[in-house]
């Protein structure tokens, strides 16, 4: 059990009112809040040891370099990567996926090759592959979702063929909350000699990951959804693959020796970290991970499981509300997408309430949720809806905040009951 | 009236649940598309003009209550009117939605005034403006005798 009240004291932002109501921040799928230790790490760096890394001979530069490189070790330990040099810092998860699509994809994908994705991918794990496929005349295939909003595992074996070069799957859907069986899919991909990439943007913050155990070839995730600052993402890649790939972004730091007409590349991971990186935020990200490790990822997951079970129960009891997700806390992380319809009009047929209207009205009650297509337009099209309202939880959320959400949803009904 | 009731006035809800002038017009009526990609709102506007007067307007919309109601109210406000009159309505409507401080219309905006409540919700203003920006481009195309480009809101 988490001591949620104590945790909340570490997050100054949570203690405020929005439209005179206590803030219930239920938009963690978009970005999480940051504990004071993370915020302090940023100001501490700028106040006391701001300097460029891997360059200066002076004391401050050494200190900054050591702090930055130490986070590589912290990240490696957190995801159980065998070697910290397999950790590459990027701007975000999107850039991490793009890095693979460019540096690995351009070298290894050719005409007729297949890349297997799923119907529930975020645009960030779709568009980079679309561009690559178009350029190389490769083919994208998609693992379908079942009526239960889980991946149709029966179809996977037919979809992975000798032409499949890469399988790229989200660990947890940012819309449906569905937790995917990534270890099983990794096994199927490797059996077909395809590589396996995980988009861990949603999964890693809430259940962590053991890359050695799952045996993925690449993992992309982002700091800002796991208590860290914006502007820092991570690409984990198996060392051998990272060594074989060409650089993605070129410039300073990523070189070994440079002539006017040619250059040689620095070793991994520096080969992929051109230019001055986001030093302050990487250092602060280290504090975020330590914060999560102190709590324990199992406790994080259990707390969210409890909240999800409670929220699912409350939302299922709400009339005229449709949930898009497995509706089972064992298969679903702390993300619940839903839509509302209103009875009304003279013919009482009822109309759908647009998620943006839901979002505006619950905001008046102090509740922050996300509304829209969640960067998953193909999934929305498949579900035949313009978007969803989405509540997503984290370590500092409480059952009272879920009650506040359901109360606010009552207000939505009241507004549209005047139809 | 609470702020939220001020936003979701009954007229807005009424136009949302029973949109006016819904549908399509056959060629040679002008057809122009508008979209708000960030929120996924989309519409197609059809305008039939003769001798500087809008004879018929039809619109098909997908989106939130504000964007749909605004589109529906707009069709009622412009149908049968001269383009010069419509230009004045557009000008007044945009001033009402975008200018700071109190607003005094120079033409009778009728039911359109209920949309002023949207002003308190800056992220929703573009929902209300989508149909109008599409109309502005549509009228330009009519006057220049050009095929209209789709309107994409930022």
Based on the model shown, name its key terms.
heterodimer, A: 419 residues, alpha/beta, Aspartate Aminotransferase, domain 1, Aspartate Aminotransferase, domain 2, 2 domains, 7-stranded mixed sheet, 5-stranded antiparallel sheet, 15 helices, globular, B: 154 residues, alpha+beta, Sufe protein. Chain: A, 4-stranded mixed sheet, 5 helices, 4 strands, 41% helix
How would you summarize this macromolecular structure in one to three sentences?
The complex is a heterodimer of chains A (419) and B (154). With 419 residues, chain A is an alpha/beta fold.
Oligomer: heterodimer
The total of beta strands of chain B comes to: 4
Give the strand content of chain B: 15-25%
The name of the CATH architecture of chain B is Alpha-Beta Complex
Task: Compute the average pLDDT of chain A.
Answer: 96
Low-confidence runs of at least 5 consecutive residues of chain B:
none
The total count of strands of chain A amounts to 18
Summarize the biggest pleated sheet of chain B. 4 strands, mixed
Helix content of chain B: 40-55%
Discrete helix count of chain B: 5
Which overall shape of chain A is indicated by the principal axes computed on the Cα atoms?
Answer: globular
Cα-atom radius of gyration of chain B: 15 Å
In this structure, how is the largest beta sheet of chain A organized?
7 strands, mixed
Strand order of the largest sheet of chain B: 3-2-1-4
Q: What's the architecture of the largest domain in chain A, going by CATH?
A: 3-Layer(aba) Sandwich
Shape of chain B: globular
Residue share in β-strands of chain A: 15-25%
CATH class of the largest domain in chain A: Alpha Beta
| Count of distinct structural domains of chain A | 2
């Amino acid at each position: 059990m988490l001591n949620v009240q104590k945790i909340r004291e570490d997050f100054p932002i949570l203690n405020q009112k929005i439209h005179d109501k206590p803030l219930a921040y239920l938009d963690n799928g978009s970005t999480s809040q940051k504990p004071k230790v993370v915020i302090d790490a940023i100001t501490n760096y700028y106040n006391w040891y701001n300097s460029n890394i891997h360059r200066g001979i002076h004391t401050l530069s050494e200190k900054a370099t050591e702090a930055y490189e130490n986070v590589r070790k912290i990240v490696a330990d957190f995801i159980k990567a065998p070697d910290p040099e397999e950790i590459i810092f990027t701007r975000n998860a999107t850039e991490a996926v793009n890095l693979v699509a460019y540096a690995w994809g351009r070298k290894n994908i050719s005409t007729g090759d297949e890349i297997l994705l799923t119907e529930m991918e975020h645009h960030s794990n779709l568009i980079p592959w679309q561009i690559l496929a178009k350029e190389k005349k490769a083919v994208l295939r998609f693992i379908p979702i079942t009526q239960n909003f889980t991946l149709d595992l029966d179809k996977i074996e037919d979809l992975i063929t000798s032409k499949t070069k890469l399988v790229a799957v989200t660990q947890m859907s940012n819309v449906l909350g569905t937790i995917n069986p990534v270890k099983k899919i990794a096994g199927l991909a490797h059996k077909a000699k395809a590589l396996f990439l995980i988009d861990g943007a949603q999964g890693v913050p809430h259940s962590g990951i053991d890359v050695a155990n799952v045996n993925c070839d690449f993992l992309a995730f982002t700091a800002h959804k796991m208590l860290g600052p914006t502007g820092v993402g991570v690409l984990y890649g198996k060392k051998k693959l990272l060594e074989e790939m060409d650089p993605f972004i070129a410039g300073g730091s990523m070189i070994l020796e440079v002539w006017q007409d040619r250059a040689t590349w620095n070793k991994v991971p520096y080969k992929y970290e051109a230019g001055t990186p986001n030093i302050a935020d990487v250092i602060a990200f280290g504090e975020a991970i330590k914060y999560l490790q102190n709590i324990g990822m199992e406790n994080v997951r259990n707390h969210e499981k409890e909240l999800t079970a409670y929220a699912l129960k409350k939302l299922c009891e709400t009339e005229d509300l449709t949930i898009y997700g497995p509706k089972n806390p064992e298969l679903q992380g702390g993300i619940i997408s839903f839509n509302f319809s209103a009875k009304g009009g003279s013919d009482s047929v009822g109309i759908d309430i647009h998620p943006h209207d839901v979002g505006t009205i619950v905001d008046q009650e102090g509740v922050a949720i996300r509304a829209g297509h969640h960067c998953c337009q193909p999934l929305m099209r498949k579900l035949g809806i313009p978007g969803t309202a989405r509540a997503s939880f984290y370590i500092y959320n409480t059952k009272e905040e879920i009650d506040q959400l359901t109360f606010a949803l009552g207000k939505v009904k009241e507004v549209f009951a005047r139809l | 009236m609470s702020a939220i009731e001020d936003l979701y006035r009954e007229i807005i809800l009424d136009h949302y649940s029973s949109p006016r002038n819904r549908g399509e017009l056959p060629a040679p009526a002008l057809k122009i598309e508008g979209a708000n990609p960030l929120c996924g709102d989309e519409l197609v506007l059809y305008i039939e003009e003769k001798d500087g007067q809008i004879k018929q307007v039809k619109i098909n919309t997908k989106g939130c209550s504000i964007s749909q109601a605004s589109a529906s109210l707009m069709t009622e406000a412009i149908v049968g009117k001269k383009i010069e009159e419509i230009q004045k309505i557009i000008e007044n409507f945009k001033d009402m939605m975008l200018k700071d401080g109190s607003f005094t219309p120079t033409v009778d905006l009728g039911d359109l005034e209920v949309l002023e409540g949207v002003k308190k919700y800056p992220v929703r203003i573009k929902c209300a403006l989508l149909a109008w920006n599409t109309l502005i481009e549509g009228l330009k195309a009519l006057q220049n005798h050009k095929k209209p480009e789709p309107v994409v809101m930022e």
